[in-house]
Amino acid sequence: MEIISVLAAAAGTWIFGAVYYGVLSKPWLEASGVPTDENGRPQNGSSPSPYVISLIGILLVAGMMRHVFSMAGIDTVAEAITAGGGIGLFFISPWIMLNNGYTMRPFKLTLIDGGYATFGCLIMGVILALL
User: Fold this and answer.
1) Where are the domains of the chain?
2) CB within 8 A of 75, min separation 6: which ones?
3) d(Cα 125, Cα 131) in Å, to the nearest integer?
4) 0.90 cut: is pTM over it?
5) Over its length of 131 residues, how does the chain's per-residue pLDDT go in tens digits?
């Protein structure tokens, strides 16, 4: 059952990311500096690499989050919201801020990517608690 919960949590978070970045695509493209084509779409948009890499990363986070939840006895939705959201807000988002700060990226990018980390981990935590 653990593998199913990890796969479901990763899938749910990945789908949330598709919607999240779909809504914020223009400000994200502007802040990230990703090269775009004549239609305003990322030049690497047809490459599967970013999607495969993101899915692997999310699977790793979901697997480790399930492990941490298990060891900490986090099994209610309220606990999962606090722990999952906290992981995104206080672990992942500050790391994104560090990376973006050293590469002189706009703070807007940190807010967009940190928002995904926070809400994505919160969603991931809830799915893990429910399964």
Assistant:
1) 2-32+47-130
2) 69, 129
3) 10
4) yes
5) 699 999 999 999 999 999 999 999 999 999 999 998 888 888 877 889 988 999 999 999 999 999 999 999 999 999 999 999 999 999 999 999 999 999 999 999 999 999 999 999 999 999 999 99
